[in-house]
Design goal:
By secondary structure, the protein is mainly alpha-helical. It is 61% helix and 7% strand. The model has no long low-confidence stretch (mean pLDDT 86). It is found in: Nucleus.
Amino acid sequence: MDDQVCPRCKTTKYRNPSLKLMVNVCGHALCESCVDLLFLKGSGACPDCGVALRRSNFRVQLFEDPLVEKEVDIRKRVLKDFNKKEEDFASLAEYNNYLEEVETIIFNLTNNIDVIETNKRIEQYKKENKDIILKNKNKIGKEEYELEEILEEEKIQEETRKKLLAQEEKEEKEKKLKAKEALIDELIFSLTLMPRPLSVLLLRQ
């Protein structure tokens, strides 16, 4: 993610290696410095979409694609309440319909489709299912556990990829430097074998 750039102040990872991009519920990124500046009072509006945001909800961006980042955040929030298990349904068909509804909700919120209606559906669901939601929150949910595992694995893979790229770049630079030094050494050695007047003439050129 060396090509990271803050969309507000335009600071890049190249110019500032310690640059950290932060994201909130809307999925739009800002560097840590811009977050501190814009949300000094604890809350403010996203400069990109205008959504009201809290400073405490900003977190370090893990994925290069902001839409993926937004979907992951929404999925985590939705699954905290839509936490029913297969055993909570009378049939597999009912469970599959429930899972399909959850995916529709996540898709709508991620892509800003019928957001108001979708949030109403969520609130209605929470009212109608508050007892089972609370019961399932008291035990580790399989979906949440698997999601945390996936996120952790993605984070490890991203860090490994960055380290490998940095190592490859370092090795490539060292290789070019050695080749240049070898070429210079070879040229100097060749000049020492030439008759003096000719070598002096070449050096002057």
